[in-house]
């Protein structure tokens, strides 16, 4: 028994020592924090918190619209109802605590523990003001500690009325309105000292969630919050029951909400930046706007301007057709330019990222990339003629070529891609199995609802221009971890880095040999040596191009696409009508190609001439485009084609020989008269 008492006393002494030590450490820490706060002096009560966007060369492209609706008014120029409603809803004990409401913190902790999640906060007005003025909204313990120190400094050096006035002048009420005066003008077209009880209770509820409680966004939520605030004001003795009842019945006369001015530079791009920033920082739009962030983007202003001006130049201003375009670096994934529509103010809907349209023949390069893994080569021949495919369910499928043109003889895969032959594509897809094309698209970063059917080879999947550009960038640079992005770095207002882009490691899902061979075949759409039963699909813009590009166009009844790349840039352009209206004018089908050619040429003006480099395991052979065999000196046309080593053609073309060549020359010599004129004309 004695031993047990000795043991117990030992534990008690240890516990007392630990408690004393902990108290001493706590007191010492408090003294250090108090001394630091005292030495640091009073923080500024006003600070600009506008988020600023920079282009890739460091130029300011936009300052979020905080200063456009921000007005400072003294506390005596604010309606007493606003003060009472704000204190009631945000911090009832504001005048009684020293920056931290200990009882409220304890109650919130217990409630959150009971619910096993954060259902209630306990930040005082002082803490909220400190966070809004000096800190980001990142959810870390370091930020919380800084917030506490700033709150302490505010309480040490300023009167309560000064802190409250600062809070009411800087809190965000949504719609670009910072502070109660800006909110009063925006919602009710009056000054803050003119607000009625009902109006004050309504506005006091908005900062809790500017999107959720704005009467412009959700009037029901706003009215419910107003009712709770009026009830709290009555319970606190600020108003009586009659005043509360009258205020709750008052019909508020809202001002017609004004439209936010569109940014002057790349508005659709800036929307992409905002979404990316919110995702990276885990914040909402309001927090981004007032956070004082410095966002460094990938935007290349000259490229952006070329994209915008080219759309204006080529598209008839009276046409209702829409257009979208994106330019990015295939190596890094940096987005250099982005236009989501012809007029942002008329329609901020981003047709690069938000619209999903049938991609047409722009899907074919991925089909032929996959075919190269199954024994196909650029010279593999299939017959191009009207074909009816028997499907497994007893149905038949009979695709057709553009305007009913067919070779009615074998053509090579290189020519099929250059002419965009649909029969060749469907035959290839049926042979491989449509599921393989679907899986290939996933390898290139395209997901979503992709139908594994024979017609997938003709682009019956509806995809976004953003996803197509991402896939084409992987085709251009398969060895890179090229994730499209619009932001390189984000800092807070003090220059501390909050986020910095790091390229992901390449997954090596894309075969560089097959990607190169496919990309080189795609240059054929501009090469007249591949002309066959019709001209190559890029012939209308081929004379505008000063260097080789890999490209692929695509058309459906409602959509026109042009995708392509060089080793340095990927560009994609889509045109069509928002309501899926059919494109009936031939000129409108040409818009996408013309815009794409402009953008690629202008964007490469100051860049060195470079071509795609063949990886190891690839061999180049000059081929007769018609027969697919090695070319001889007597072949009228020759084209350099690339093959996986060991799969290049072994035989030489026998279609063109010395004798046949001489005969051909004699025929040409004897041509004349009307026949010669007709040939010249057509």
TrEMBL record:
Indicate where this protein resides in the cell: Cell membrane
What GO terms in the biological process aspect are recorded for it?
cell wall organization; peptidoglycan biosynthetic process; proteolysis; regulation of cell shape
Glycosyl transferase family domain: from which residue to which, for each copy? 61-233
Q: Which family does it belong to?
A: In the C-terminal section; belongs to the transpeptidase family. In the N-terminal section; belongs to the glycosyltransferase 51 family.
Q: Which InterPro entries match?
A: Beta-lactam/transpept-like, Glyco_trans_51, Glycosyltr_51/Transpeptidase, Lysozyme-like_dom_sf, PBP_transglycosylase, PCN-bd_Tpept
Penicillin-binding protein transpeptidase domain: residues covered: 326-577
Q: Which reaction does it catalyse?
A: Preferential cleavage: (Ac)2-L-Lys-D-Ala-|-D-Ala. Also transpeptidation of peptidyl-alanyl moieties that are N-acyl substituents of D-alanine; [GlcNAc-(1->4)-Mur2Ac(oyl-L-Ala-gamma-D-Glu-L-Lys-D-Ala-D-Ala)](n)-di-trans,octa-cis-undecaprenyl diphosphate + beta-D-GlcNAc-(1->4)-Mur2Ac(oyl-L-Ala-gamma-D-Glu-L-Lys-D-Ala-D-Ala)-di-trans,octa-cis-undecaprenyl diphosphate = [GlcNAc-(1->4)-Mur2Ac(oyl-L-Ala-gamma-D-Glu-L-Lys-D-Ala-D-Ala)](n+1)-di-trans,octa-cis-undecaprenyl diphosphate + di-trans,octa-cis-undecaprenyl diphosphate + H(+)
Q: Which GO terms describe its cellular component?
A: outer membrane-bounded periplasmic space; plasma membrane
Which GO MF terms does the UniProt record name?
Answer: penicillin binding; peptidoglycan glycosyltransferase activity; serine-type D-Ala-D-Ala carboxypeptidase activity
Which residue ranges traverse the bilayer? 12-39
| Coiled-coil parts of chain | none
Keywords tagged on the record: Carboxypeptidase, Cell membrane, Cell shape, Cell wall biogenesis/degradation, Glycosyltransferase, Hydrolase, Membrane, Multifunctional enzyme, Peptidoglycan synthesis, Protease, Transferase, Transmembrane, Transmembrane helix
Please give the PANTHER family that the UniProt record associates with this protein: BINDING PROTEIN TRANSPEPTIDASE, PUTATIVE-RELATED, PENICILLIN-BINDING PROTEIN 1B
- Recorded protein name is Penicillin-binding protein, 1A family
Give the Pfam families listed for this entry: Transgly, Transpeptidase
What main location does UniProt list?
membrane
